[in-house]
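Supplementary Methods. Inverse-folding protocol.

Structures were first reduced to a discrete structure-token string of length 503. This string, shown here, constituted the complete conditioning input.
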């Protein structure tokens, strides 16, 4: 009894006492209202209650530290760090870690500017009742710049995500390294990069870019599995417009240099694009609905009302009679997958190949397909890189692959040869050969040359290959074959063009 009394006197609840309830959103609103109205804090009746009151006050101060900067974020059309987490996760599911963390720097007067949280909000919650870990840069604190403690908070979350086998989502809105802290800020980045690599293929890693992400900071999102960007507020680049102007004389703005459209269409750095942050949160939630929590689990099953044994007459007429007439491979994919389940990845980059997630009889599958509407579906460098990375991701996370083939070959030309089509094309071949997940291939029309082999042919150990009646599997197309086999005959003809057409 005396021992319990001493604990109570010291502000520590005796064994069996209930823990203080966590401060939820209603508590914060009530406390904020009381303080704004000038209400005096209640006088607690015990040391424990006083300490609980102090804890709640500190939590309130930490959360409200955005203050005027919060209004500044809203004025820019942007959400705050905590608002982003609240909208991404299931309501009321977020548990924050290290809310009171403070930086340890004393350089340049930093000891007078210690702010709880140190510019990043970290913790875990749920999306569709499945646990995820999340960190969100707080641009209202030191511009969201990364320092030593900031990095420690992020790496702690990443370690917990791997240890518990849960996805990790990073929300990026940062001014880069905290210069006042010197090289330790760079060390912090390197610690994060290392964990990105260690986590690769173990848990899904997703990055959302809703602010500046520049210099060395871009490498962390670049090593994650999927990048989401919001137009006009998210930017990624190594060297900024000012430095480019000084060093090269080139004048470029943020959007044209590293905006969402640039990275979704031209560079292929990003995978998804949206006009608003809320739209990006919806995309993240949808993507995670297709993915397992880690590489030891199977993807989530979602019951489907579609009959797996159904027939679809539309598929009989979807391939044109003219072998040179294009069609939309998405229409084929949509009719075979469960209704309304296709989520395309990188839809605006390398559009001559389609990659995305869908479901067959409720089971997640990864879809790869040539797109005859763009470059006749030929494989080029960008398409090979795009598809290879997607195939390797699916293989890492136990997602079966379904490949739809209509490929006339690799895109010819000096530009492709000079830029390394041989090396990059081999990446897709390697990815398919390496994959150990179930692989199904459907040849809808053309499957010519080396591209036939590359597109998950049965010789690369695809598990099940189907050729539609419209399929044409050959070393090359008829025109090319005639020009090679009958080269002398055509050359000696009085009318080579007509002779070629006859043959």
């Amino acid at each position: 009894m005396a021992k319990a009394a001493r604990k109570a006197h010291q502000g520590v609840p005796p064994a069996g006492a209930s823990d203080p309830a966590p401060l939820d959103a209603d508590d914060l609103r009530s406390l904020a209202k009381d303080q704004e109205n000038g209400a005096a804090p209640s006088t607690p009746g015990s040391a424990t209650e006083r300490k609980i009151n102090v804890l709640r006050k500190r939590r309130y101060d930490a959360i409200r530290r955005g203050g005027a900067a919060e209004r500044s974020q809203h004025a820019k059309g942007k959400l705050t760090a905590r608002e982003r987490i609240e909208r991404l996760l299931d309501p009321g599911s977020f548990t924050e870690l290290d809310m009171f963390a403070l930086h340890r720097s004393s350089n340049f007067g930093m000891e007078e500017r210690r702010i709880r949280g140190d510019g990043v909000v970290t913790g875990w919650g749920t999306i569709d009742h499945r646990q995820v870990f999340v960190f969100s840069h707080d641009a209202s604190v030191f511009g969201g710049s990364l320092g030593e403690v900031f990095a420690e908070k992020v790496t702690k979350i990443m370690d917990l995500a791997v240890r518990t086998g849960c996805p990790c989502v990073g929300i990026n809105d940062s001014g880069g390294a905290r210069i006042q802290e010197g090289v330790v800020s760079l060390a912090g980045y390197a610690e994060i990069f290392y964990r990105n690599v260690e986590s690769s293929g173990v848990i899904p890693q997703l990055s959302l870019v809703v602010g500046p992400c520049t210099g060395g900071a871009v490498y962390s999102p670049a090593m994650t599995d999927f990048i989401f960007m919001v137009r006009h507020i998210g930017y990624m680049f190594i060297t900024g417009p000012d430095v480019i102007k000084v060093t090269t004389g080139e004048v470029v703005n943020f959007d044209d240099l590293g905006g969402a459209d640039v990275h979704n269409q031209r560079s292929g750095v990003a995978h998804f694009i949206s006009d608003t942050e809320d739209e990006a949160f919806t995309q993240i939630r949808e993507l995670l609905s297709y993915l397992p929590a880690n590489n030891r689990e199977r993807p989530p099953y979602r019951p489907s009302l579609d009959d797996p044994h159904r027939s679809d007459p539309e598929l009989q007429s979807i391939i044109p009679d003219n072998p040179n007439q294009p069609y939309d491979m998405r229409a084929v994919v949509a009719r075979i997958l469960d209704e309304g389940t296709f989520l395309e990845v990188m839809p605006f980059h390398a559009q001559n190949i389609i990659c995305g997630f869908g479901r067959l009889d409720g089971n997640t599958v990864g879809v790869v397909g040539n797109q005859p509407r763009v470059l006749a579906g030929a494989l080029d460098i960008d398409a090979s890189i795009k598809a290879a990375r997607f195939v390797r991701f699916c293989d890492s996370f136990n997602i079966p692959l379904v490949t739809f083939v209509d490929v006339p070959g690799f895109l010819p030309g000096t530009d492709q040869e000079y830029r390394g089509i041989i090396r990059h094309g081999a990446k897709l071949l390697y990815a398919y050969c390496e994959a150990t997940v179930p692989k199904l291939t459907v040849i809808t029309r053309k499957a010519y040359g080396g591209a036939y082999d590359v597109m998950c042919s049965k010789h690369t150990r695809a598990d099940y290959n189907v050729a539609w009646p419209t399929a044409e599997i050959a070393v090359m197309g008829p025109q090319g074959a005639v020009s090679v086999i009958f080269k002398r005959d055509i050359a000696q003809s009085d009318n080579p063009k007509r002779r070629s057409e006859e043959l």
